[in-house]
Amino acid sequence: MTKPITRKTSSSPAGQPQQDIYTRVTAKILTDLENGNLSWRKPWHSEHLASQVMRPLRWNDIPYTGINTLILWNAASDQGFTSPYWMTFKQATEMKASVRKGEKGTQIVYANKFTKEEEDANGDLKSSQIPFLKSYTVFNASQIDGLSDGFYQTPEPVVIHQQARDQALEQFFAQTKADIYTGSKACYTQTTDRIQMPPYESFETAKRFYAVLAHEMCHWTKPPHRLNRDFGKKHYGDEGYAKEELVAELGACFLSADLGVEPQPEEHHAAYIQSWLEVLKDDKRFIFQAASHAQKAVEYIHALQCS
């Protein structure tokens, strides 16, 4: 009989307690929220990053996703980094570059699962997937000497005409086949599976229109026949409502960065901040879950471009 695999699940494979990883990341975001700041919107308000926000990139141009997007955006904003590129000490060394002496790296996480086998009451082996987090350190290209010039170039701002509709973005949202109609407010209604948007002309700029639409599109991914995302919302303003709004908020920021538009604040953001504070204080892991749900929503929307 195969011997059951036993592993400790209280720590990541790197030895750092998983709870410490969750607590560290959540504590930073809670501090920002308590000061009225949204960690994931900081880059758009940083003088050195404004109008050129994009996803953080690995050395090979593959974007970071989920919670690592938030961590690295926050670090870049706080430390004044302009390069979108991040890499490990080893990766920099392999490119014959060197991290400058005294530079402090940024800890991000790698999420995966391992298979655990246990015997049930009948003596049969049952397998289960156990999630784990591994923490590791990366450095921004701004902290590294000897990289090729491309790693140090500041991304060019995406220029969208102030009023004219952007045909590329029009095509992007049309390709989703979402039912979008003009009404008095911006909202997604799950019972009718429709997105309502105010008239295009009522927005100050084209960017504002597409940014608000990006938020509602993230809500649109929620129903069972799409991503089946359910936080148990019973009524407006309850915990389930707050969780879904946080997912849509993060998703809108991710999607806006991909499309080159600045995410726009919801009219109830002040109230949302309070509800998000309560949710994150009660559940130190939820910001990781929310970022994962947001990433899935954005990937779902992107995948429709190929259908």
From TrEMBL:
Coiled coil: none
Domain of life: Bacteria
InterPro entries from the UniProt entry: Antirestriction_ArdC (IPR017113), ArdC_N (IPR013610), MPTase-PolyVal (IPR041459)
Record-given protein name: DUF1738 domain-containing protein
Annotated ranges, domain N-terminal: 19-139
Gene Ontology molecular function terms on file: single-stranded DNA binding
Domain (Polyvalent protein metallopeptidase): residue spans on this chain: 168-293
